[in-house]
Structures are given as C-alpha cells and as structure tokens.
Amino acid sequence: xxxxxxxxxxxxxxxxxxxxxxxxxxxxxxxxxxxxxxxxxxxxxxxxxxxxxxxxxxxxxxxxxxxxxxxxxxxxxxxxxxxxxxxxxxxxxxxxxxxxxxxxxxxxxxxxxxxxxxxxxxxxxxxxxxxxxxxxxxxxxxxxxxxxxxxxxxxxxxxxxxxxxxxxxxxxxxxxxxxxxxxxxxxxxxxxxxxxxxxxxxxxxxxxxxxxxxxxxxxxxxxxxxxxxxxxxxxxxxxxxxxxxxxxxxxxxxxxxxxxxxxxxxxxxxxxxxxxxxxxxxxxxxxxxxxxxxxxxxxxxxxxxxxxxxxxxxxxxxxxxxxxxxxxxxxxxxxxxxxxxxxxxxxxxxxxxxxxxxxxxxxxxxxxxxxxxxxxxxxxxxxxxxxxxxxxxxxxxxxxxxxxxxxxxxxxxxxxxxxxxxxxxxxxxxxxxxxxxxxxxxxxxxxxxxxxxxxxxxxxxxxxxxxxxxxxxxxxxxxxxxxxxxxxxxxxxxxxxxxxxxxxxxxxxxxxxxxxxxxxxxxxxxxxxxxxxxxxxxxxxxxxxxxxxxxxxxxxxxxxxxxxxxxxxxxxxxxxxxxxxxxx
Length: 584
Prior knowledge:
CATH topology of the domain at 113-247 and 460-470: Chondroitinase Ac, Chain A, domain 3
Structural class: alpha+beta
Mean pLDDT: 80
C-alpha cells in the first residue's frame, strides 16, 4: 500500500489545537489501551524487546510530563512578568464596567419609604400597597452583634411591573446549572435598615416577616434573594401564596381623622411658641431695667465772663448742684432777652427750674409784679472753687465709668441669654413645622398610594399575599425562571429615517411580567404569538417601540423597528408605564 500525503490540508484553527492539547488525557488513553491489550494478550510480555521498549516508553512519558509542567509554569511566569495580554484580557479590557444594580434613569426612580422602629418594642408596618412588615422586638444588632438601642430606620420599596423593573435597575437574569434564564416576576421588594447612617443587621433568631401583596395570583413562583457578591439570585424556597384578609377601599374619613389627630398634636405646640418668645423678652427686659444705672457726674463749668447772678439754691430739690456750692449762675448766650439793667432791678422772686439740658443748665425765673423774665443760666465756678470741683468731678467720673462698664456687661449678658432662649424656641418651632408638614405629606401620600394601588390593580379583589421570612436585609423576589425565545433575529432601530444605535435595549412582554435586558440589542430571540414592546436607551435619550410597531417590523421581515423618542417631561413611573404601554 502506497503512503498518501495530504499537501493542501486546511489550516487548523486555534480551537482545534486547544481541544487536543490535553496531554494528561492522551497519557490516560495510552495507559488504558495498553492495559486492555495486556489483559487480552498475555504472551506479548514474554518478548524482552517489548519489556525494554515499555520501560523506555514509561521513562519518556514521565520526563515529558515533568518537562511540560515545568515549561507551562515557566511560560506563565514569563507571561506574568512581561505583562502579556491574552485574548481574555483583551475582552475584559474592552468590556465596559457597569454596576450590578444599575438604575438607567436619572429622574425616574422607584423610591423608598422610610419607617422608624423602636428596637426595644418592635413594630408591625403597613405599607400603602397593603403589604405588612412584622418586626419582633430586639430584632436588630450592630456589626459587633450588640443589640441596637433606640430607633432604627427601615427603608422599603416594592417593584411590581415591567416599568418598575426597568427603573429599579435590578438584574432579572438567573443562572441555573450553567443555563441562563430571565425571571417572570410576581413582585420584588428591597428592605434595608440603619441607625445614624450605619447599617444594622437582623438577629439570627429574630427574623422579620414580610407579607408581600402581589397582583400575580398564580401558584407557580419561587422565592429568591439577590446575592450581590456572587451576582446571581439565590434560591430560597417554593413560594406558597396565601389569600390576605378581605381588604376595603381607602376610607377618606380615616385620612381626615388621622390629619385631625396630627393637627391636635402639632398645631397647639406651634402656636404656643411665639407667646413663649414674647414672654422671654418681657422677663429679660425687666431684669435689664432693674440693673443699677449710675448717674453721670456734672462737669463743673468755668466762668466765661458773661453776666452772673448769685442765688440761694435748695440742694434737696436740685442735688446735682451740690457740686457747685459757692457757684454763681452765668447767663447763657441763648438768653437773648437778657438786658444789662436786669441785674439792677430788685425782683420780688427768683426761682430755679430744670433747663433744656437736664443737669447742665437751668431756667432762672425772675418776677416783679406782672413782669416775668426767663433766662437760661449755667452754674459756674472760678478760682480755687473750680479746681476743687474739677478734682472731685474726675474722681466721680472714674467711678461712674466703672459702674457703667459693669452695667453694660450685665446688660449684654442678659440680652445674650434672652436671644439664646428665643433662638431655641424658634428652632423648636421650625422643627415642629417641618415635622408637621412631613407627617401631613406622608399621610396624604399614603392615602393617595392606597387609592392608586386600588385603581392600578382593578380594586382589591385580585391580590394575594406572599410571605417571606427575612434573616438578612436585601432584595427579595417571587419569580419563575423563563428561557429565552426560539426565533433569533438581528434588528435595526430607526428614529424617523435616522439609524439608532442604543447601548441598552429592554424587550418587554406585555402579557407576562418579564423584561429581557438585551444590552445593545444587536440580536434578540422572541417567541411567536407573544406580544412585545421595547424601551431603548441611546446616549441620554429614551425611546420606545410600541406593540403595533413591533408586530409590523417582525411581519415585514426587514426587522426595522420604528422608535418614538420620549420627551423631557417624562420624569415619573406613571408616564413611563403609559409610554411603553403597560396596563393599556
């Protein structure tokens, strides 16, 4: 038989080479074949050439395995030291890093509701959707395992439909035994706890119970907890829903009664604060008025050489003039009615009254029959009398300044105390106002949410309770894993006549609560006879594909999907639901 040489063999691919690079498997096959042959033919071992060949072959295998291991290790070390970039490294570098829980919208959010719970008492929280959170007393501990004292803040939110799933950014893919599924959700909720900004934890023997109200009433779902470390959902158990007690529509009278109680709690306290502020002012004003007010001594005046009168003064009536004993009264320049002959008249009476400047000048009243003259006069001294009076004045003035400084300091201290108390009352009033408004808004929002929940679910008839036992805070889901579609397609997206290249595409089933995150949507799988809509993100723009446009694109075989850009005014979940056709 002539040998055949295949000269034009096609080039072997890297995958084919890698598939046959398993040297350990080759050795294993060799050993198995050798043993099998030996068992079937015992005569071959009698040949000495075969014995020697076997020994040599064994040594060769051992050497080859050892060399291969050392070579691989050396290669890895060299690759590491030289920072060799492999294909896997390149793929990693080219892959954009995104958050595991990645909220796609800046303004459209599934908001948390905040509840305060006294850890020593526990609580039963009723959420606006009718869900209940039952918290045993002493359920919370810190990271050291120590029981929390005081209030704990519970943040809780629920995700029920496709729009809320998209807005939450919570991944709905589920990997089971290497197979990827997408969850059909009967509803999710996220619950966290903290105190003063620090996370708290649930005591292992004091789990919480969440009676989660779901509008998906079918009995075909499981319970899962999102593992944010492993980035996958962890199966908890089969979900066994129960029918909640018959619920009644929201009662407006209950809301009014609750608001009335709120007013009775806050409004009297708020109204009383301005009176307290005024009362503080009255009290401290009286204290300031009682402070000693030192009298400023009168500075003695030296004679200016104007006309003078000598008078006998009653110092009891004018005690300030006691410093001017031996003084004479000099006519002030403002007394324009003075005439020199007045000093030669013998007046029937001369009286002193307080002048325009108290303690500094006086009114001299001169009377003679029907004639009355009033002159502004100043007490003046001269010679030694002025020097003595000036010395006494300086002593009294120093004492006056000391007393005045003390009084001003005492007055400033009392004013500071008054202002501090007034500021405390004003801060208390501000806090009461804020608490009142916040509680009022909470009550109104809660009642509105109850009404909206009733409307969106068509009333309270189709609601079922799914009971979760919570030992850890996190995101919980009642879901049924679903495989992807069977029909593969490569869609094109257009905005009018302009091609659109979205970075994120959400494929939405309208008759089941399923959202497929297709990344950039270059390819997708769908099922025939299933209704879909789409939501696309391109840059900062948000686009939708309606049910009718989706069906038309699939039917035309061109797979060109016409999109509609959402306006800037869409900033809430209700508008998003309407835009993608949820509930319509």
